[in-house]
Amino acid sequence: MRAPSPKTVAAVMDRLEGAYAQVRTELHHCNTFELLVAVILSAQCTDTRVNQVTPALFERYPTPFDLIGVSPAAVESLIYSTGFYRSKAKHIIGCAKALVECFGGVVPSTLDALITLPGVGRKTANVVLGCAFGQPAVVVDTHVRRVTHRIRWTQSLRPDQIERDLCRLLPREKWTDGAHRLLLHGRYTCTARNPHCTICLLSDLCPAEAEKRRAAGRATCYGARKITQ
Asked: N or C: which end of the chain has fewer CB within 10 A?
């Protein structure tokens, strides 16, 4: 696969910036700890659903200190509808305990420190770094992976490799917002099922769309030949 030209990358980013001028996480939160917990809950779950359960969760357990010694069942009852609630409750309680014991109850601001917390991988850590601390960070979720494959910006299925590919393609100052715009484009336009290609602002820059059109053209020509035979 040939890497996209800097001109193409810039064109994609310019169009996405025009469509999504203001980018921010759609997870509701009032502080860094709430954001961290919300991102843990968002695994295999929509932001909308997470936003429905976090108000009650944060009202009962507003700080990491409030989760020390809490039974998993108490947390599970509040986050049940987000799916995988047993493992998420375990991660949230374990994360709170680690924050208190290792960081004085404060969410750390480095990738290396964040990924030591239970339930926190690179994606979660990068969301916190980019959204809470304003650090350049590339978040790779299912939407970003899908879009970057369709526009041929990566060949990998591994989030860590996709992150590295995007870090090479995008200027450092565009890592956070650029990845977020790719995410939003995947969530609302370049969807997994029935992508909205006819209204996509990247359709003329998308290799997947070009391949689809060529395939449709070949099928039309084949059908016309069959009719004339």
From this structure: C
Contacts of 63 (CB under 8 A, 6+ apart): 33, 105
Cα 184 to the chain's mean position, in Å? 9
Domains and CATH numbers, the chain: 1-21+136-229 (1.10.1670.10), 32-131 (1.10.340.30)
The Cα 170–Cα 146 span in angstroms is 17
Catalytic residues: 123, 141
Element (H or E) spanning 85, and its range? helix 85-103
Q: What is the pLDDT of residues 107-144, one digit of tens each?
A: 999 999 999 999 999 999 999 999 999 999 999 999 99
CA atoms within 13 A on the CB side of 120: 28
Calculate Rg over the CA atoms of the chain: 21
Query: Residue 52 carries which side chain, given as an amino acid letter?
Result: Q
* CB neighbourhood size of 111 (10 A): 15
The answer to pTM > 0.85 is yes
Residue 229 CA, distance from chain mean position:
52
Q: What is the pLDDT of residues 168-222, one digit of tens each?
A: 999 999 999 999 999 999 999 999 999 999 999 999 999 988 888 777 665 555 5
**Mind giving me the DSSP string for 16-83?**
HHHH-SS---SS--SSHHHHHHHHHHTTTS-HHHHHHHHHHHHHH--SGGGGTT--HHHHHHHHGGGS
